Amino acid sequence: MLLGLSLRCRTGLGRLHFRRGIHHSPPPPKTLCYVSSCTDPYANLAFEDWILRNSDPESYVLYLWRNRPSIVIGRNQNPWKECNLALMAERDVVLARRSSGGGAVYHDLGNTNYTVVMPREAFARDMCAEMVAKALQDSDIPAYVNARHDVAVDGLKISGSAFKLTKLRAFHHGTMLIDADLTRLHGCLKSQAHDCIEAKGVASVPSPVVNLRDYSLSLDHSSFCDSVLRQFADTFAPPSEATVVDTLSDPRTADERRRIQTWDWLYGQTPEFTHRFYRSFAWATVFASITARHGRITDASISTAESALQPPPGTRLLFADIAARLKDVRYHPSDISEGLMSFIDSDNPRASELCDWLVSNLSFPTV
């Protein structure tokens, strides 16, 4: 039984202090808690990775954090298929890729993220989700864990989960929709090219969601953190203290933060996929098939539909020349435009028209 648990936090870099209760043998496991005061998604994800790699293999660590508006995709997901990158740029929503699996999720300051890192041998998929559900039940919210390991209320998802396992460690991290801007979210997770892209990576499974604000007017980021901290202490053992960290200025995460902001990680990590599209021109109906792996085009083919109308002479040779120019080009608007520039600026109107069409279909903004 946990006795005399109290929580106190100061603005900025501070500490959350617990008064330990009385425990009997066997001794409780080592527990730590961190709460991020930063809202940079790259810094917060980098600190999560630091905990996984550097914490005591026998310890249990709770990490609570939240981000500025962002879409965070799973390690093996395709941002071009999962996200409406143009709408994200318009709404100032940034893209991040985490090191764990799972689907794409929306973060903002109305969403609180929780991570529990533990010994791998102690890991169970529903353990931490049940812990969070119990924390909400203590606040009179009828939360439960569903078959997909998500926390839900009345059949609506309020928290998604993802996992990562290493040789000695495991972590479960999840989101919690408290008062997220669902209007800003709307559309950001629906790519206009979704149905045109066949991907080998992990696809997101859309679920109807709801904010906890619909069930409690008093629950906010601070009170949710307080409830989860208490339940973490009750589930494992009360930590001696929980440290509030500014992950953006923490030197332990600087290198990892820089790495996960690069194009090579955000986009180049994408597994193989094929993007197919077509258009009817006055002179032929043209089909394009572009295959890319790890952010580079590995194969391209351009063809016409079988019909009584034959394309103008030299068209098939033009198709082959353009397709060859696309191979090994980075799947990035500026690189694709540069690779096709000689055709775009040519005196051949079909070549210019065709390449303008290809560039418009392959030019996704970078966010």
What is this entry, summarized?
With 367 residues, the chain is of the alpha+beta class.
Describe the protein.
It is a single chain. It contains eleven helices and 17 strands. By secondary structure, it is an alpha+beta fold.
Which descriptors apply to this entry?
367 residues, alpha+beta, four-stranded antiparallel sheet, 11 helices, disordered N terminus
* Strand order, largest beta sheet: 1-14-2-3-7-12-11
Strand count, sense and closure of the main sheet?
Answer: 7 strands, mixed
Distance between the termini: 48 Å
Estimate the helix proportion, in percent. 25-40%
Strand content: 25-35%
- Unreliable stretches: 1-23
> Can you tell me the overall shape?
elongated
- DSSP, total strands: 17
Task: Summarize the topology.
Blueprint: E1 15-17, E2 31-36, H1 41-54, E3 60-65, E4 70-73, H2 79-82, H3 85-90, E5 94-97, E6 105-107, E7 111-119, H4 127-137, E8 144-145, E9 151-153, E10 156-159, E11 161-165, E12 169-177, H5 182-185, E13 197-199, H6 221-235, E14 241-245, H7 254-260, H8 263-266, E15 273-280, E16 285-293, E17 296-304, H9 315-326, H10 333-344, H11 349-362
Parallel strand pairs: 2-3, 2-14, 4-5
Antiparallel strand pairs: 1-14, 3-7, 4-6, 7-12, 8-9, 9-10, 11-12, 13-15, 15-16, 16-17
Helix pairs in contact: 1-7, 4-6, 10-11
